[in-house]
Amino acid sequence: MPGEWCGGxxxxxxxxxxxxxxxxxxxxxxxxxxxxxxxxxASLSGVVAVGDECWVSDGATVKQSVLLPGSSVGxxxxxxxxxxxxxxxxxxxxWIRGGALVxxxx
Length: 106
Known about the structure:
Elements: E1 3-5, E2 9-13, E3 17-18, H1 20-23, E4 29-32, E5 37-38, E6 43-45, E7 47-50, E8 55-56, E9 61-63, E10 66-67, E11 72-73, E12 78-84, E13 89-90, E14 95-101
Parallel strand pairs: 2-4, 3-5, 4-7, 5-8, 6-9, 7-10, 8-11, 9-12, 10-12, 11-13, 12-14
Antiparallel strand pairs: 1-2
């Protein structure tokens, strides 16, 4: 998959969009997949995988977590030790530690 190493353990797909202010807030082993968006001031630390077409909004914090394709993290939300299921939307300002977040199936 085309992309670039950005120092340390940070890898960003060439089709991802990352706000310049977020680069300095990425620590540990971080993967940002194709068509993912990482907003202004968003922080990714520890071991983090941001899947295809995910959205990490401005000021959000993601630590030691996996975002499966199509999921999103709202502005100012904080996730730690989570697995976020496909298409799940973490609401702005939510603070979640430890859990699997999935949508119910009808």
